[in-house]
Amino acid sequence: MSQIRNFSIIAHIDHGKSTLADRLIQACKMVSDREFKDQLLDNMDIERERGITIKSQTICLPYTAADGVEYMLNLVDTPGHVDFSYEVSRALSSCEGAVLLIDAAQGVEAQTLANLYLAMENNLEIIPVLNKIDLPAADPEAVALQVEEDLGLDAERIVLCSAKTGQGVDRLLEAIVKYLPPPKGDALAPLSALIFDASYDAFRGTIISCRIIDGEVKAGDIIKFMSTETAYKVEEVGLFHLTRAPQKSLTAGQVGYIIAGVKTVRDTRPGDTITHKDRPCAQPLPGFKPIQQVVFSSLYPITTDEYENLAAAMDKLQLNDAALSFQKDSSSALGFGFRCGFLGLLHLEVVQERLEREFDIPLILTVPTVSYHFYLNDGTMMEIDNPSYFPDPSSIEHTEEPFIKANILIPERYMGAVMTLCMERRGENTNYHYPTPGRIEFACELPLAEVIYDFYDKLKSITQGYGSFDYHLLDYRKSDLVKLDILVNGERVDALSQLTHRDRARERGLHACEKLQEEIPRQMFKIAIQAAIGGNIIARTTISALRKDVLAKCYGGDISRKRKLLEKQKAGKKRMKTVGNVDIPQSAFLAVLKSDQT
Length: 598
Known about the structure:
The longest helix is centred in the last third of the chain and has 21 residues. It is built from 14 helices and 31 strands. The strands form six sheets. Strands 11-10-16-7-8-15-12-13 form an eight-stranded antiparallel sheet. Strands 2-3-1-4-5-6 form a six-stranded mixed sheet, sandwiched between helices. Strands 21, 22, 23, 24, 25 and 26 form a six-stranded antiparallel sheet that branches. The chain has five domains: 176 residues, 3-Layer(aba) Sandwich (Rossmann fold); 85 residues, Elongation Factor Tu (Ef-tu), domain 3 (Beta Barrel), CATH 2.40.30.10; 71 residues, Elongation Factor G (Translational Gtpase), domain 3 (Alpha-Beta Plaits, 2-Layer Sandwich), CATH 3.30.70; 92 residues, Alpha-Beta Plaits; 111 residues, Alpha-Beta Plaits (2-Layer Sandwich), CATH 3.30.70. It is an alpha+beta fold.
């Protein structure tokens, strides 16, 4: 065990985690130059195209140190996005140390701090690394000062490197061996292993990524998951190389995989404890909590005959993505679909893109919403994330919505614009301080519903890309929530209904009406598009009718003849309006739902 090092690479988005992982793999000679490709551990097309890590990846690296001792380095590459912070925290709890990667040009950012706090909560030894020192804009001295003053880390331990060129990677490997502690654990104690991830293999079932804390596991053992009390027989154990490498057993201190005939990823929960059925450990490992979805949206196929294909695709996708939850849903405008729960907006985008790419199913999404609490007059509490389940307004005593604590790091010159943005989004309890001259750390409490849609994009726009953002859920607070309905020709379109704060209802309703006016084709009669709260109309636009010139044949004669023809046309249009149906094109739904002003 003294020759094992378990560590993770943590950083803000786009500071070079995956590139550094590639260099470490090459430095340990795990891959030949001919077989090498960028983002070696990222195996999804979306990860490669966007340059982000969505799933945690693990690899076991053999490394011979300068003193000739052979070490086994277990690297856990984690996602950087705030949506997947629980996955990051579980990965960190399986390690003894962390490499904190900081861009030498960008400096310390919001998720750098958030991930550092996660590492400190798990009592990890931290090695600060300044990456991208080859860039012309790099300023290692100033960033090293930030590391010492903002983060309180030892400046003497800082390793300078360039993951792109490979400069300094050898020094980093020596620092990992020197500064990170070996794992602790008792190989003779009852088995306790921490699940930190799982993936699905079509032939073998679920492959469980775990860290063995105590004891030993081998093929043939009967294991038990402590949160669900389910038991399975182990078929294979092994280490993660570029491909899976089977072993006779996994012992205390090692990171590896277990295959035990588990049918779905849903049955293996990150943070859960594995133990032997016959000789269980005394208590589960700390830190386990169920995955909590925060954003909800309905998915519908564009053509109704694709529903069966969508149902099959959702089942297959959930095999690989335990954080996705869904249930059947229906809409009079869009037909049958699914109501889905996501970890955040990036998670929603990834799921939508995977469904459209891997299963070739074009989709329509309803307005993303969050889960609200409705307290009724009879003392019951309803948790609602779908506008169609909105209770009778007269029965509601009060409503609550989730709030978050947002941490925003920005250059000083953008302070006014960012504060205005937060105030527009109903921000409260704002405070700020200067971690270093010229940089502000801005904290604000915001409703989650105001953040999930386009807050991050707006923040990036007004700070010209320099702003960084991280958040965590706080609690539920009283709020004045209403259901905003959209009516087309007097008929409610349930797919466009949304739950919103009363102060924002008029703005959102007017925006939806204007978008629909642009997209719905003109008919032979006037079409009123209205936004309503209950029976009160708060916004309206009108699509004018196509007109036929019925007076063309009246080239003379008494005015009463013309008036008679016009009255006849007016009566006909009135009759058409009462019996006519307005077909809303799919592009109209997309125009309302995909707009950045929703």
